[in-house]
Design a protein that fits this description.
The protein has strands spanning 2-4, 35-39, 42-46, 54-59, 67-70, 74-78, 84-91, 96-104, 109-114, 120-125, 130-135, 142-148, 165-170, 177-181, 195-201, 210-215, 220-228, 233-242, 257-263, 269-275, 283-291, 297-306, 312-317, 323-328, 333-340, 346-347, 353-356, 364-367. By secondary structure, the protein is mainly β. A 5-stranded antiparallel β-sheet has the order 1-18-17-16-15, with no helix packed on it. Strands 23, 24, 25, 26 and 27 form a 5-stranded antiparallel β-sheet that branches. The protein has a 4-stranded antiparallel β-sheet with strand order 4-3-2-28, with no helix packed on it. Pfam families: Lactonase. Residues 1-18 form the signal peptide. Keywords: Signal.
């Protein structure tokens, strides 16, 4: 089935080409590093992976469930519980985070994405059903406009009654944003998918050949080919597979909701988080990426690992992809680091590091240095 870009709630912007940030290797869990953490009323920085000790713990207003860093020191943070977007200055030498300005946009923003030269910032407002476009030129913060997310109600009358844009993805050329909307499922088969997060494939290429999308309602991973046209992208679905893999269903299929998706830099391994499964802990599924040529790519389920917590909302890699960092927002260990073996499988029996507490509900984790 042909999937046109606009039919999956995609907003286009012609932008400059991307600039790659240099890698900063992580050699061991005890090596000094800095990981940005967001949880209700706090923005924190952990300066080691082992135990996640906080060198900075800044009290803030609301819920900073997503952040975007304009290197080296400008941090943009949403407040998912309000309509505020705040610009902070972060100083990793003096261990300080200072608020510089705060502006009003849409309510319920859950994701931020820069354009290629960091002069524009796209905010997806799940709660409001809109997309904010911010001017961030020279480290500023100004709302340019708010765009309603298009779409028709989906099969789930409770969760898909109105648009819910979840994530903006800048394609490798820097010309297009793809925005995943929980509701806009007109050309996604089968209907009721609930698009949440996605990744372009492959990483490091000038153009994408595929787009891989995770659906939180159907708990499916969908694979599309990507074709570049003059002013738009074409998507054609070529695979649909369960986020749980064969023989590993959730204990509660009615509540299960797939969450995060991350692609390793080697373009051979993909990881998807499974939330609210009803099991004692939730899980992350590992898929191997197989392809015979640039068109026929397929995902093969390898296995799953415990996240040692409940509702893994976000995952990200440490530098060099050595560790998978997980933020569980609803119980168990809040922060978890799992080591990736050379074959891409996860060392799940002995997590490298965990941090938890009864009121610790992190929603964001990302290594920044």
């Amino acid at each position: 089935m042909l999937l046109l870009v606009f039919n999956v709630a995609v907003f286009f912007a012609k932008l400059a080409f991307a600039k790659k940030q240099p890698d900063n290797p992580t050699t061991s869990p005890t090596t000094p590093t800095n990981m940005l953490v967001g949880f209700p009323k706090h923005i924190a920085v952990a300066d080691k992976m082992q135990g996640f000790p906080f060198s900075i713990d800044k009290e803030v207003t609301g819920v900073p469930s997503w952040m975007a860093l304009n290197y080296p020191n400008l941090l943009y943070a949403v407040d998912e519980s309000s309509n505020a977007l705040t610009l902070f200055e972060i100083n990793l030498v003096s261990d300080e985070i200072t608020a510089k300005s705060s502006k009003e946009g849409s309510s319920g923003v859950v994701h931020l994405e820069f354009n290629a030269d960091n002069t524009r910032l796209i905010g997806c407002a799940y709660g409001n059903g809109t997309i904010d476009i911010w001017n961030t030129t020279n480290g500023g913060l100004g709302l340019i406009k708010t765009v309603p997310s298009p779409g028709q109600p989906g099969l789930d009358k409770e969760r898909q009654a109105s648009p819910h844009p979840h994530q903006a993805n800048l394609d490798p050329t820097g010309r297009f944003f793809v925005i995943n909307d929980l509701v806009n499922i007109i050309h996604i088969s089968p209907q009721g998918c609930g698009p949440r997060h996605g990744v372009f494939y492959p990483q490091g290429a000038f153009r994408a050949t595929h787009y891989i999308l995770v659906c939180e309602i159907s708990n499916k991973v969908l694979v599309y080919t990507v074709s570049y046209r003059e002013n738009y992208l074409d998507f054609t679905q070529i695979q649909s597979t369960s986020t749980f893999g064969p023989g590993l269903p959730p204990a509660n299929s009615s509540s299960a909701a797939a969450g995060a998706i991350v692609l390793a830099a080697d373009n051979r391994h993909l990881y998807v988080s499974n939330r609210q499964t009803g099991n004692s802990t939730d899980s992350v599924s590992h898929f191997q990426i197989n392809h015979s040529n640039s068109t026929f790519l397929s995902l093969q389920f390898v296995g799953s690992a415990s996240t040692y917590g409940i509702s893994p909302r976000m995952m990200s890699f440490s530098h060099e992809d050595r560790y998978l960092l997980i933020a569980n927002q609803a119980g168990g260990f809040g922060l978890v680091a799992l080591e990736r073996r050379l074959d891409g499988t996860l060392e799940a029996e002995n997590p490298i590091s965990v941090l938890g507490g009864p009121d610790f509900t992190p929603q964001f984790i990302q290594q920044i240095t």
